[in-house]
Structures are given as structure tokens and as C-alpha cells.
Amino acid sequence: MSVQERKERERAGRERLIVATARELAEQQGWDAVTTRRLAERIEYSQPVLYSHFRGKREIIGAVALEGAAEMAGALRAATVAATTATDEPRARVVALARAYLDFAADNPAVYDAMFQLDGGLAFAQEDTPEPLKDAFAALLETLGEVSGDGVHPALFTELFWASLHGLATLTRAGRLPSEDSERRVELLVDRLAVV
């Protein structure tokens, strides 16, 4: 391995460590606790080393968001594949997709916030949208596009369904919706919006 390759691998390792540490700290104490000073202390590097990788907290949030988008896409696809294995009904896939989305949001609140609530400097729904964000939307579209109904643009339907899931996720987490009715909400959402 060349010196350059070793340096690039070390740099990538430091970036992964910074992102993982920021994510861990945010999940434990919230995003307000994530500062470059605290991150530098936790990873035992100086703040200038952090700044050599990320210009600040905003870019770190963006990196966590991209990592989370990739994880969410994987979770959504795994859920729909499992539902397809169990039954070939589109309704079962949509219900599995909705549950997987809501479970991801509940299990990873700081990551979910980085993806959809905080400014990570990422473009959404534009040409320069990063691939992990496009792929997360594609993971939704793959299942929801088939139940959008005649004359309804699949991407537009996917946006509406996604907005509904996002609302359920954030309102439930904020205690605005009782959690014991979450399953009934998913069923109602699928039955009222999806053409299955």
C-alpha cells in the first residue's frame, strides 16, 4: 500500500469516527450536545483535525443524514421484500413499508432529525440532491408507485404518502398522538390513500 493510500484510508477512518461519534452523542443527549469541542474530546483529536474533515456542525449533520438515508432505504427495501416473500399482495408491501419507516424514525430519532428536521446543507428534490437521499425516496417510490392509482403521478403520490408518514412519526414522537393507536393509523393511511 502506498503512503497516499494509507493516508486516504486513515482520513476516511477519521471521518467515519467523527460521524459515528456525532450520531452517538446526538442519540444520547440531543443535537445541542454535539459541538466540535465535545466531538474532539470524545475522539481524542484536536478541533483543527475535525475542521479538516468538516467545516462545522452543519456538515456533520449532513453526513449523518446521508448515512441515515442509506440505512432507511435498506430498511424499507428489506421490509417490502419480506412482505413480498410472505404474500404477493401490494397492500402487505405498503403496510410493511409504512411500519418500517415509522420504526426507523422511532428507533433513530437523532438520525431522523438530521435527515428531515435540521439543516445539514443538503438539497432535496433537486438535480444536486445527494444519491443517498434520492435512493431513500426511490425505496419509497418502488412500492408506493404501484398503488398510486390511475391518473395519479407515482412520484407525487409518494410525496404525499411520505409526508403523511413523516407527520405520524414526528407527532407520535412529540407525544401529540397516542402511541397505542399507531397500528390503526397505518392501516387507515394505507386503506384511504393507496389503491390496493
Quick structural summary:
The protein is mainly α and 196 residues long. The chain contains 9 helices and no strands. The longest helix is centred in the middle third of the chain and has 30 residues, at 57-86.
Structure write-up:
- With 196 residues, the chain is an all-alpha fold.
- Helix content is 73%, strand content 0%.
- The longest helix has 30 residues, at 57-86.
Considering the chains and any ligands shown, give keywords for the structure:
single chain; 196 residues; mainly alpha
Distance between the termini: 55 Å
Question: SSE order, as H and E?
Answer: HHHHHHHHH
Number of alpha- plus pi-helical segments: 9
Tell me roughly what share of residues is in helical segments. over 70%
**Structural class from helices and strands?**
mainly alpha
Roughly how many Å is the radius of gyration?
19 Å
Question: What is the topology?
Answer:
Layout: H1 3-29, H2 36-43, H3 47-53, H4 57-86, H5 90-107, H6 109-116, H7 131-144, H8 154-173, H9 182-193
Helix pairs in contact: 1-2, 1-4, 2-3, 4-5, 4-6, 4-7, 5-8, 5-9, 7-8, 8-9
